[in-house]
Amino acid sequence: MPFKSLGLHPLLVRATRELEYTEPTPVQAGAIPPALAGRDVIATAQTGTGKTAAFLLPVLHRLIDLPRGVSRALVVSPTRELAEQIEESCRKLARHTQAKATLVVGGRPMGAQERALRAGPDVVVATPGRLIDHLRQGTVRFDRVTALVLDEADRMLDMGFLPDIKRIIDRLPARNQTLLFSATMPPVIAKLAGDILRNPATVQIGRRAAAAVGITQAAYPVPAHLKTALLRHLLGNTEMPSVLVFTRTKHSAKKLARMIAADGFKVAELHSNRTPAQRTKAMEGFRRGEFQVMVATNIAARGLDVDHITHVISVDVPDVPEDYVHRIGRTARAGAEGDAFVLVSREEEGSLSQIERQVGQRLPRVTLPDFDYSAAAPKPTHKAGPALGTGNGRKSARSGHRPPGANGPPKPPGSGRGNPRGGPPRPPRPRHG
Ligand code: AMP
C-alpha cells in the first residue's frame, strides 16, 4: 500500500518518497487514516516502528492549507533527545510545505524560545518541564492549539511528568484532537487515555513476543513503609474482580489479609500456617468467587489454577526471578488476560532488574498521581505501623483509600469521576490487542 492511498497531502507524500519510505509501516497504516479524519488515536508502538511519522504526517496534513503564524499542534515528548528527533523529522516531512516547527526543551535559553513561540510556529515540539516554565511565565499561550500529541506517554509517566501533562492539557482550550503514543500501556496511561481521549481509534503494534502472553505487567515504585497503604489504595480504587496478593512471609500474609478484610473485602488466606482443610476451603472459595482477594505466600504460586484471576499483586519483589514468573502465571489462565503488579522499594530494585532480565522486558514504572509518596514512616515508638514486615501495622498512615463499603465491591470503573484532577486510576483494564 503506497502512502498516497492513505489520503495524505501530495506535498507530504512527496517528502515520504524522497525519504525512501516506500510504504507505510503498520503503525502508520493504523494511525494515519483515523487521525486524518480528525479522530483521537491511542497507539501502542515502540521506537523504531515509524511512530513519529505516524503522528507528524496527519498533524501536518491538517494544518498545511491553513494560514501560517498560528501554533496549531503541540507535540510533548519526555526527553530533549527525543524532542530533537521529532523536530528534525518534522522538518524533513514538511520540507515541501511552508509549515514550521520549533523546539522547546530545557538546557537552552528561554528568551530565544519565547521569541520563536511568539512567531506562532505551526508545530511546537516540547518537553513537559520547559513547556510548563513558559506557561508559568505567562509569555506564551497555546490557545489556538487544536492537536496535541503525547509521545512515549509511559516514559513521561516514569519520569513523573503526569501532573505536568495534566497542567498542559488544561491550557489547551482549543484542543480537538489528541494522539497518544506509548510503548506500553500501564493502567495509569490507560486511565489518562480514558480521561482525555474521545472515542479513540486504537492501534496496537509491536507486541513483544517475550512478554507473557495476555499478562500486562507493571512495577509500582514505593517506599517500603508505604507498601500496605499503596496496596489498599490500588484495591480500593481499581476494578479488580479477583486478586491474588503475594507476600514474602506468612506473618505478613496474615496481617495483610486482616487489614484488607477490615476495608470491607472478602479475603482468603493461603499460607503454611493454615491447616490443609483451611487451605482447601480458601482455594475453593476463591475459585468460586466467594472471596475477591486471596493473600498468599509463594506456596500458592505453584499449581494454583484459577481461571478468573484478573490481578496478581506482589507486595514484595521475589528474590528468585522464577518465583516471580510463577506468581504472575496465576493470572491470564486459559487464554484470559490479566494484570501483574509488583510493588518495589528502592532496596528491591536489584531483584527487579534480575526479574526484568528473566522476562526479557523492562517493566513500566507506574506512579499514582494521587497517592502521597512522601507520607512519613511510622514512628518507631508507635505500636501500629503500616509497613509490611516492619511492624504489625493495622492502619495506613495515609492511603487515600476509599473503603468499598461493608461488603460491597469497589466502584466500577467510570463511576465517581467527580474529581477530574486527582482521580485515582480506575482504569479500563489495559489490554494489548
Ligand atoms: P520512529 O519509530 O519514529 O523512531 O522511526 C524509526 C525510523 O524509521 C526513522 O529513522 C524513520 O525515518 C524511519 N521510517 C519511518 N517511517 C518509515 C517508512 N514508512 N518506511 C521506512 N522507514 C521509515
CATH H-tier superfamily of the largest domain? P-loop containing nucleotide triphosphate hydrolases
CATH topology of the largest domain: Rossmann fold
Which of globular, elongated, flat, extended, rod-shaped describes the shape?
elongated
Per CATH, the architecture of the largest domain is: 3-Layer(aba) Sandwich
Mean pLDDT: 81
- In which order are the strands of the major sheet placed? 3-4-2-5-6-1-7
CATH class call of the largest domain: Alpha Beta
What's the helical proportion of residues? 25-40%
How are the SSEs placed, and which strands pair?
Elements: H1 10-18, H2 26-36, E1 41-44, H3 51-63, E2 73-76, H4 80-93, E3 101-104, H5 110-118, E4 123-126, H6 128-137, E5 147-150, H7 153-158, H8 162-170, E6 177-182, H9 187-196, E7 201-204, E8 215-221, H10 227-237, E9 243-246, H11 250-262, E10 267-270, H12 276-288, E11 293-296, E12 311-314, H13 321-328, E13 338-344, H14 349-359
The structure holds adenosine monophosphate.
